[in-house]
Amino acid sequence: MSEKEIVLRYGFNPHQKPARIYTKKGTLPFKVLNGAPGYINMLDALNSWQLVRELKQVLKLPAAASFKHVSPTGAAVGLPLNDTLKKAYFVDDMEISPLMAAYARARGADRVSSYGDMAALSDIVDVPTAKLISREVSDGVIAPGYEKAALDILKAKKGGKYLVMEMDTDYSPEETETREVFGIQLEQKRNNAIPTADILKNVVTKKKAFPADAVRDLIICTATIKYTQSNTIGFAVDGQAIGIGAGQQSRIHCTRLAAEKADRWFLRQHPTILGFKWRKGVARADRNNAVDLYLQERINTFEKETMQEALEKVPPQLTYEQKREWLKGLKGVSLSSDGMVPFRDTIDRACESGVSYVVQPGGSIRDADVIKACDAYGMVMAFSGLRLFHH
Q1: Are 98 and 53 within 8 A, CB to CB?
Q2: Burial code of 368-391, b = ≥16 C-beta within 10 A, e = fewer?
């Protein structure tokens, strides 16, 4: 392994060999401390690192992201976890540091989708964070460094094959980036726009005030969608993304997907689910799947058997009315859109999932309709003028 090139296991798929990652100038800005990366691992690592670096830079808090297939399943900063979240994220029996809390939040936003993730961490990895990663099904981690004991824990994961990468925090790429598609080169200026509180200056609704927590959450979900396959809608609350609707051709479909994920995140905190009695030895991934199955509207015979294998006793499913009543408690949610919101349907659906604060580029011919919808729901919305498509 040279400082300029790393041979990868394969490309997008096992039949795409050979594959490599290399630099034409200088040396690669990271080291592989353990394991052997694949092509998708590298895409996830390099995208996720940019996200956590920007969150740490703007919010001055430890940041974490959980990435799958070049989009985040979750991102967060290291705010303390309350007892409910500790239990919902299966960390109530663990020592919690700020960085560990950030990863628990990032991983907990969508625990089913984060299965087999690439973890990105803004700070030197400590033992509590390494212990959490060691318990989860994860493919790799990228961070600026590792405590010796933490590195030893991670190197032992997956029979010694877990991917551990160390990023050079001083690295900054050139302003122009190039990619090749079907033998043709495309070139553009790198997207170096970093979302800060400045994106909230142009408030267009009757209500004008963004509370400090909403400013933080809008920055988090805007930075998150910047590194998500477009089109994208992101929901955030309490210092973490809770629903990411990625890669849909229609913005309302992005909104529905993000809102459904946010709803499931909140429903996981329902007392019935927190009170589940798990059979001894049930893996964390199986617990996640059992909760996900339980929250479905209909469950077939096989799915019932799957839950029975995980739970001592499967409680009656929550009714639609019970779910809607619980979801009334989801409030103060922030929404960010990577492109203009073309119709009010996005706002109508967002309101059902507790959204109170919105930031979007603006510029639709129906901006007035969207503003009117926000005013009707008592939302605060800003036009950032900043589109953040990512492909």
Answers
A1: no
A2: ebbbebbbebebbbbbbebebebe
Q: Residues near 93 by Cβ (< 8 Å), separated by ≥ 6?
A: none
Q: Residue with structure tokens 């479909």?
A: 253
Report the greatest alpha carbon distance in the chain. Answer: 61
Q: How far apart are CA 354 and CA 185, in angstroms?
A: 44
Torsion sign, CA atoms 295, 300, 303, 307: positive
For the chain, the residue count is 391
What is the C-alpha to C-alpha distance for residues 209 and 378, in angstroms, rounded to an integer?
Answer: 11
Name the CATH architecture for the domain at 5-167. Answer: 3-Layer(aba) Sandwich (3.40)
Contact in structure between 122 and 56 (CB atoms under 8 Å): yes
- Which residues does the annotation mark as catalytic? 68-69, 231, 391
CA angle 354, 357, 362 (to 5 degrees): 125
Q: Report the alpha-carbon distance of residue 92 to residue 84 in Å, rounded.
A: 9
Q: What is the token pair recorded at 43? A: 């895409």
pLDDT averaged per 10 residues in sequence order, the chain, 391 residues: 86 96 93 97 97 98 97 98 97 97 97 96 98 97 98 98 97 94 96 97 98 98 97 98 96 97 98 96 94 91 91 94 97 98 97 98 97 98 97 93
The token pair at 102 is: 């950030």
Beta strands in 182-306 (DSSP E): 184-189, 232-237, 240-246
Question: Domain 192-267+330-383 - what CATH class?
Answer: alpha beta
Q: Cα dihedral angle (221, 222, 226, 231), rounded to 10 degrees?
A: 80
